[in-house]
Structures are given as C-alpha cells and as structure tokens.
Amino acid sequence: MRSSILSLASARDDYSATPPLDRAVASALPTRLRPADLLRLTDEGAEDVLSGRYDHLLPADGVWPTDERWAVRLSHDDEVDVWLISWTPGKFTDLHDHAGSLGALTVLSGALSEYRWNGSELRRRTLAAGDQASFPIGWVHDVTRAPAAAESVGPLDPTLSVHAYSPPLTAMSYYEVTGHGTLRRTKTVLTDQPEGDL
Question: Signal sequence span per UniProt (predicted)?
Fold first, then answer.
C-alpha cells in the first residue's frame, strides 16, 4: 500500500513538473479582452475624438443636445464596441449592469458622477476629464453628469466620455434598492445602446 502511495505521489510530481503545453486554457471571461485593454481603447478613442478624427460623426454645427444624452458609435466589431457619449444635466442612466459585457470609460470633458452598488449601499465617485474607470461583469451603477461639471464648463458645454464594451452590448438589467437595503432587478432589456436608453 505504501509503495502505491509513493508511486502515485511520484507520478503526480512528474505531471506537475511537466504540464501539457498543447492544451488550450478556457477563459473565465466572455471575451479575450481584459479591463486594461478596454481602458486603452477608450483612451485611444478619446485622443482620436480630440484630434478631430471623428468630427464627421459629431452633431452638425457643433451644437450638442441639451435635453437628452447623445451617443455615436465610433467603432464596432465582433469583439468590442466603442462609443462617444454626451451627457446633459439632470439625466440619469438608472441603476444598471451591462449583462455579459465588460466595460470601461475615459472622460474627455466635464465630469461624471457614478453611483455604484457595493453590496450594501450606493457609493458615489466623481470622474473628471482624464479619469478612467472599468466595469467588471456584475458592476451595477448609475451615471450622470456631475453637478460640478455644469458649474465649471457651463450648461451648454458638453460633458463627453468614450466607452468600450466587450463583447458588444446585447442586454442590460436595471435595478432598484429595496427598503431592506438590498438590490432587486426590475427588468432586463435587449439593447445595443450604451449606458441605457438614449
């Protein structure tokens, strides 16, 4: 018996010393892209917007919508969507997640307030121009133009951010905080629009 245990241990040691290299390792994520990749894409997208590469996609005559959020898809393939979003004062996205997609953003101008569910309460943070954030699967948040943005750049100046989602958005779930301090899903919608209905 002891010799069979020793030979088993020896075989296990030999196996762990030389693992098979030709075996594919499945990703635990629904995409090969990592949050760092999405942050790089949003940063590059922000630079491209600021350099004028996407001027042909921007609102005519440089007049940004003031009543509703506005968005345009900057690029898209089977792996990732990249969007430019203009945020207007007083408009919230409502608490939501991005279903099976990872996300990231870079703020170009103005500032955004993000209210994120941390498991027991909503936590607020402000993201100013140049700030970035990434969103793993299961990240539930609400995003709005920060009140300070309206004061610092004026009500007609846009608060802009570039967002990337991988895989591209197909659905979003919406939530409410219950009276018991828990999160309850209220609906799930099929969508390819960023940060909720525009």
Answer: none
Residue 90, exposed/middle/buried by CB under 10 A (0-12, 13-18, 19+)?
Answer: exposed
Quick one: which of 55, 64, 43, 77 has its CA closest to 159?
64
More reliable by pLDDT, 27 or 137: 137
CB 65 within 8 A of CB 86: yes
100 Cβ contact list (under 8 Å, min separation 6): 30, 137, 167, 170, 171
Q: Which two tokens stand for residue 72?
A: 């345009």
The pTM assigned to this predicted structure is 0.80
Beta bridge partners of 165: 81, 103
Residue type, 60: A
Residues facing residue 128 across a β-bridge: 111
Worst-scoring range by mean pLDDT, 8-12, 36-40, 124-128, 172-176?
8-12
Q: How far is CA 18 from the centre of its chain?
A: 39
